[in-house]
Amino acid sequence: MNLRKNFALACTLLLALMVALPAVADYKITRSDTAVVGDKAQDPVEQVIYLSDHGMLIKTSEDTAILYNAKEDEIYFLLTGNKQYMKMDWAKVAAQKEAYSKLIDSMTFTFKDTKRKEKVGEWNTNVWEMIVEGSFGKSEMKFYECPDLKTSPAIEKATDKFTAMNPFSKPEMVTEMKKMKGFPVKTVITQETPGGSSEVTQLVTKIEEKDLKPDMFELHKKFKEIDFDYVKFNKIQAAANKK
User: CB within 8 A of 64, min separation 6: which ones?
Assistant: First the structure.
């Protein structure tokens, strides 16, 4: 078991899904993700996030996407190239949390407003910092929050649902992070573990108002369900991003 990869994946997934803007409009958010693992820089990956009161659709690659349907209150992992989908299996999530229970128990964290202000693109931001330490090593996360882009209570349920997916999250961590009321237009995650080091930067490059139809957040009728396997989903996603 590669704890560095598993922990980094969990943190990255959680932060990738922590998107919330005012419910007065629908949005298309374009974001560039870059990563350095050890001393090797990986190719940038562009993700497009569609956000509406009807749900969230995150296109993680040409062949994969993550869908939250607000009406059903369900999360689906889409293999669009294969016309297949996986429905979130909460029993497997619970089993994974149990498997990592000792690691989770070892975790301590601090979360604070650094009082620093930085310009990110066109946005003025406040810089927040979280440091997590445990038997896995150390993780430092910096959030560049734009206070003018407020989070919406309308999709808090979705955010909580996504947070529950993260096997490394603690309830008190989620509570602390809710102090950050604006939208993070940039996030930097630095990992130092026995398996090595890594740094992931997630940068929003564009936010556009859109008129998104409800059926955009529904499962395509031609898609077939397969067993939930996030490792398989991640491998297909990684392969598609290398094309």
Answer: 77, 78, 79, 80, 81, 233, 236, 237, 240
